[in-house]
Amino acid sequence: MRYELIIFDNDGVLVDSEPISNKMLAAYLTEVGHPTSYEESLRDYMGGAMHRVHDLVLERTGQRLPDDFDEVFHERVFAAFKRDLEPMAGAMDVLEKLTAEGVPFCLASSGSHERIRVGHRKTGLDKWFDDGRIFSSQDVGRGKPAPDLFLHAAESMGVAPDKCVVVEDSPLGVQAALAAGMDVFGFTAMTPVERLRDATRLFSELRALPDLLA
To answer: Considering the entire predicted model, what is its pTM?
Structure first.
């Protein structure tokens, strides 16, 4: 195989969380005085860490979000995850196959460790990801599109960046992977192809991933 490490994004790649979280983010931003549609939330914030929400709102309006914005938002999202979250179609099959074939993989997400764990417990993905294979934007100073998170994951796993491939569904994630000197496979199940056009290659069915790695 060309790669020594597969780095998965989490939201929208392994768990079907993007519709849930972006609908709730759009609603909450609107509630606190910054009207935002679901489509605008996907366009502006999908794949980014929470600091991106604060930065863009401040840049566009000159106003800061409430001090408890993150806390309230995460409480709402976690409650929704516990009710409704599902793994992405094919995720279990892919992880099972990679494990059986001895292919190293890990996860690097803009979400917090708590968010990742809540989702994995609900979906059963915690079977494949112990603490040593989970990396969050909390672990580094800057989230995507900065390369810091992916570089941190590669270093922690002991693999050179040019031997890694990232699986991403967001333009911010694609930018971060390329900036880290890694190949990136753009997952287009939910994201329009044109928004991921800078990826090394594109694919739309998660079950196809193992064959693409050969």
So the answer is: 0.90
